């Protein structure tokens, strides 16, 4: 390779890392900044709404978005834009109708924002899946945080305009942005729609419906925690948990980098290679978690200065959410081996049981008066550990024995004393 070629490659990698860092940095820092600009209850309502938007939009997709990579990459069907435009349009219209009903029913702005957030999440999912299938790296980074970028932008604009952003004003602004998006989507549908469209649309549902069910289970394990806290507890607890959840997302960034660079090898590599690879990833994630916990202990007062009185409580929750993040990443990585072994369907049934057990555990703790943010966070972490153990058991039963991974998966418990130490 010549010096000129090396320079071009180096420049390309530098631009990619810069774009990746900016996109993830905005997604990481934006919600933390917004949390310091609005009331704690309003921030909890917005995080609650975004979580509902992600889960409900997955259900409303009927598997269409999951079918797009199969249609484009395996079946070589390049005419999928009309399907995606239609899906985003239907999701958006139904979510806005739900918002109108919520407003007329006096449900409150937290419920209204949750309805509107479904439209934003629907637009995000459809754009992201298309760009991934096309292999457009920079567009993927934008689309993966599309609704969040708009949310941050609206919050900033409202702050400049009226000086007092809250759940009411952000809901109105967010809704205005995605109403404009839906007009653009409707225009795109009229331009791209094919003859026999509904037959193609139903075909996409047939391909992706079970993928959607599987995706809902994984999304439920990863994103339902804020919804469940909002259901069993209060919006203030949602806010406190969400701050720790957002901080712990820095661990997930490690996973994003790894999957971007090693996806093909993680899927195709033999079990021995994956075993060692997972241990290296785990070591990096543990290091990030330790630095994050120590940094928050030292600089938490600066990072969330508006919530200084809550910092001792946040310091207890953060180590637990870091454990959750590591086990969620582990579950996601091991899921690739399940896909390769063609046992995803069996895993989905068991993981659905984990979700049911998680909800039941919270209900029992609530009934006996032991439900708190610490106990709820511990239930979420334990559920993810159980899910990973089920994945490893199914792989072992199918002949894929990840011996080192089975032992290393317990290592995140080394972070637990940090929570107990702060609690003490």
Short description:
With 424 residues, the chain is mainly alpha-helical.
What's the Cα radius of gyration? 22 Å
- In the predicted model, the low-confidence regions spanning at least 5 consecutive residues are none
The count of β-strands is: 0
Contiguous helical run count: 16
Q: Could you give a short account of the major beta sheet? A: none
What order do the SSEs take from the amino end to the carboxyl end, as H and E? HHHHHHHHHHHHHHHH
What overall form do the CA principal axes indicate? Answer: globular
Question: Mean pLDDT, nearest integer?
Answer: 81
Structural class, from secondary structure content?
mainly alpha
Helix content: over 70%
Estimated share of beta-strand residues: under 5%
Cα(first) to Cα(last) distance is 58 Å
Characteristics:
single chain; mainly alpha; 16 helices; globular
SSE blueprint:
Blueprint: H1 3-35, H2 40-60, H3 64-74, H4 81-104, H5 109-134, H6 137-143, H7 146-162, H8 167-192, H9 197-232, H10 235-268, H11 271-303, H12 311-341, H13 344-367, H14 373-397, H15 403-408, H16 416-423
Helix pairs in contact: 1-6, 1-7, 1-10, 2-5, 2-9, 2-10, 3-5, 3-9, 4-5, 4-8, 5-6, 5-8, 7-8, 9-10, 9-13, 9-14, 10-11, 10-12, 11-12, 12-14, 12-16, 13-14
Protein model, in words:
The protein is an all-alpha fold and 424 residues long. 85% of the residues lie in helices and 0% in strands. It has 16 helices and no strands. The chain has helices at 3-35, 40-60, 64-74, 81-104, 109-134, 137-143, 146-162, 167-192, 197-232, 235-268, 271-303, 311-341, 344-367, 373-397, 403-408, 416-423. The longest helix has 36 residues, at 197-232. The protein starts with a helix and ends with a helix. The mean pLDDT is 81.
């Amino acid at each position: 390779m010549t010096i000129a070629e090396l320079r071009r490659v180096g420049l390309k990698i530098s631009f990619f890392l810069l774009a990746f860092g900016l996109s993830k940095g905005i997604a990481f820092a934006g919600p933390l900044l917004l949390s310091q600009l609005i009331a704690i209850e309003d921030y909890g309502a917005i995080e609650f709404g975004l979580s509902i938007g992600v889960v409900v939009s997955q259900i409303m997709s009927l598997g269409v978005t999951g079918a797009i990579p199969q249609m484009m990459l395996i079946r070589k069907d390049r005419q999928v834009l009309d399907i995606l435009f239609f899906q985003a349009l239907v999701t958006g219209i139904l979510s806005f109708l739900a918002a109108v009903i919520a407003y007329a029913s006096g449900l409150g702005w937290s419920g209204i924002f949750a309805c509107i957030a479904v439209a934003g999440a629907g637009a995000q999912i459809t754009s992201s899946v298309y760009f991934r299938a096309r292999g457009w790296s920079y567009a993927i980074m934008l689309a993966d945080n599309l609704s969040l970028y708009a949310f941050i932008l609206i919050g900033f604009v409202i702050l400049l305009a009226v000086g007092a952003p809250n759940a009411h004003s952000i809901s109105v602004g967010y809704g205005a942005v995605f109403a404009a998006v839906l007009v653009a989507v409707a225009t795109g549908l009229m331009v791209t729609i094919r003859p026999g469209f509904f037959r193609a649309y139903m075909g996409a549902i047939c391909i992706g419906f079970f993928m959607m069910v599987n995706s809902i289970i994984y999304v439920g394990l990863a994103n339902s925690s804020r919804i469940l806290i909002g259901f069993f507890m209060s919006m203030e607890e949602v806010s406190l948990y969400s701050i720790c959840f957002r901080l712990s997302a820095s661990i997930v960034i490690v996973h994003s980098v790894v999957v971007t660079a090693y996806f093909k090898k993680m899927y195709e590599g033999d079990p021995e290679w994956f075993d060692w690879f997972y241990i290296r990833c785990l070591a990096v994630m543990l290091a990030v978690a330790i630095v994050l916990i120590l940094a928050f202990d030292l600089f938490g007062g600066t990072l969330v200065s508006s919530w200084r009185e809550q910092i001792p409580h946040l310091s207890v929750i953060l180590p637990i959410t870091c454990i959750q993040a590591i086990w969620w990443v582990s579950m996601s990585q091991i899921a690739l081996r399940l896909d390769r072994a063609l046992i995803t369907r069996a895993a989905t049934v068991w993981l659905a049981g984990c979700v049911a057990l998680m909800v039941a555990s919270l209900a029992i703790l609530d009934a006996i008066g032991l439900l708190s943010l610490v106990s709820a966070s511990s239930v979420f972490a334990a559920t993810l550990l159980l899910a990973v153990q089920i994945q490893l058991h199914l792989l072992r039963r199918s002949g894929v024995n990840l011996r080192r991974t089975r032992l290393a998966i317990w290592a995140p418990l080394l972070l637990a004393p940090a929570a107990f130490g702060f609690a003490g």
